[in-house]
Design brief:
MICLK protein, mainly alpha, F-actin_Monoox_Mical, single chain, 4 helices
């Protein structure tokens, strides 16, 4: 086609041949844009799935942590009763019971720190999810031509 256009002597033929090439370029650009949008959507979906899996893992760890804390609490109550002499088990000496009690307190503190870390991770995941939704909303707003937007749309876009 290009060779035929180049060797054509009529200027009206040149115009006729150049128009299809513009539409071809526009179609190519449109295809590229759609492909890019599709890839972007897939990446967003993959990131959401990663966050979902991470959130589920954090939730499981929090549940396991809660059970461990309950078990430590139960054992701690039992040990305190023995230390006060409210229990019948006089087989252990007081220093051994105090040692166990301090180890119990250390373990409980460690679990509480771990729980705080997990809660921070969960909050971080929520914030990442919120950011992703805002970015998607902004992309949708920016895809609309500015001439078609009213003042409220422009303000909302700026706010995002």
């Amino acid at each position: 086609r290009k060779q035929a256009t180049e060797y054509s002597t009529s200027s009206s033929d040149d115009e006729f041949e150049s128009k299809p090439s513009l539409t071809h370029k526009a179609k190519r650009t449109l295809r590229r844009r759609k492909k890019l949008e599709k890839e972007t959507k897939q990446l967003i979906k993959q990131e959401e799935l990663k966050r979902l899996h991470k959130a589920q893992a954090v939730q499981r760890q929090l549940e396991e942590l809660e059970e461990r804390q309950r078990a430590l609490e139960f054992f701690g109550v039992k040990l305190e009763r023995e230390l006060r002499g409210e229990s019948d088990s006089g087989t252990k000496d007081e220093t051994q019971m105090l040692h166990e009690w301090f180890e119990l307190v250390l373990e409980k503190n460690k679990l509480m720190r771990y729980e705080s870390e997990l809660l921070i991770i969960a909050q971080e995941l929520e914030l990442e999810d919120h950011q992703s939704r805002l970015e998607q909303k902004l992309r949708e707003k920016m895809a609309i031509d500015d001439s078609l937007k009213d003042e409220m749309d422009l303000n909302e876009e700026n706010e995002i």
